[in-house]
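Lecture notes, unit on protein representations.

Consider one protein chain, 252 amino acids long.
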Amino acid sequence: MPIFRLPEEIIFPDPQLAEPDGLLAVGGDLAPGRILAAYQQGIFPWYSDGEPILWWSPAPRLVLLPEEFHLPKRLARTMRQNIFEVRADTAFAKVIASCAAVRRDAGEGTWITEEMQEAYIALHELGFAHSLESWHEGELVGGLYGVCLDRIFFGESMFSCRNDASKVAFATFMENAEQLHIRAVDCQMTTKHLLRFGSRERSREEFDELLEQFIQQIVPQQPWRLAGQAQSQPPTAQSQRNSVGPSGPDGG
């Protein structure tokens, strides 16, 4: 099948026309309106430095429903030890920069380019992207970020520089899913790590049904707060950019 080149108009081809690996289209830009229109149809950008913007819609799709969430016993023990303080939306820019840094430091390369970071920070400032963060002794040591449309959270990436830090952030997020009005989490690609939490692969038809059911409106959200999280004002995006530092290896 041909790969579609996007016009200036914000429009995407039918995701069913994607290549077997999920590649659907090339081109366009990372303006908030285009990214939101993509996610609404189950499409997301994913490309490396030096490449044009590539748009993907893989099938099957790994999805976790809150009612199917499974907390592994070892991770439950770690959480009971209260090693980490988990917060939401207090360091979005630092989380996304750290997700990029751990991959570069590991020599893996990253799709989280400077352009992508700026685009998702803009979505966060507009109320459409969120971060979950694990803190230890005042230091950000793990977390994840993604885009939320209505009742679906589209997970993008996670990082850890202490064992289990990102897993604790993710598990705490799932335990707060009802409070945050989340009915499904798009995990995108299948990994053993995410399967342990109860995620299941869904066909394109099943995933499309979830999109139709749980995205009824696209409106900005207030910054997320987890149960027990202090109601302090999150730092501005500019102060977060100024505080971004190096991160350790991705221990997940």
